[in-house]
Task: structure prediction
Amino acid sequence: MNPAHRPAPSRSRPHSGACALAGLALLPLGTAAQEFALYISPPRVELSVKAGETRREILELQHVGRETGRFRIYTADWSLKEDGTVDFSSALAPGSCRRWVAIERRELSIPSNGRYRYRFEVTPPADAPAQECRFAVMVEGLDATKVAQGAFSFPVTGRIGVIVYAKVGDVSPNLVIANASVSGSKAGRVPVVDVRNDGNATGRLEGFLLAKDADGKEFEIAPDPSPILPGATRTIALVPVTEEGRQPPAIKYPLTVKGNLEWGKSRQPLDMRFAP
Result:
């Protein structure tokens, strides 16, 4: 296998959909997103590997464009900012584990409506300490499309980044739920909790909670599954659970919330009151 190739720095905001990385997709550049017709599964990779051993993973690439698609594939380091944006970088971050990563090939062509099973490997050295190895496998279109804006035209392309979390040895998140408050959003005012990760692996809150508002109306809410990196504190929204196509219920505060929040094998009871 070729060693992982490293790209120029780039940035993106979280994005949902078939090409999303659990909220961490690198959006197509410019305005020609429809020309970048690629889907990748799984959208996020979480794996465990022992020091001194090799773990192979496969990404399923599906190209649904009308013509053969040409792609460049490489790895990148990344960091998650407070506002949810992701920084991808070609420079090796402090403690980067990208030296442990090997990719199958650096360029790839997929015919129209074709699929390709793309392989990559992670091999921590035998003396690697217990840690979470984080990197991204980037897939970038090589065929730019010219887009016109007024009197100007410029080439645009698209990229997707698949975030990989590789646990080396015995590592796990340790999430601590702190302040409860109410925050404004596009969907209205929602209850939020501040969550600190005192562990050495990324964690995500899960679980369904029973909420009761000031009018006595009861409904289920669930935490946003945004990643909480080791050593970080993030504000996590508790979002009403609704059927597809239905609007979330209007909440009249104060709101009481009870139930259990979970991450990995851990569980924490929650009994909180949210007031504006």
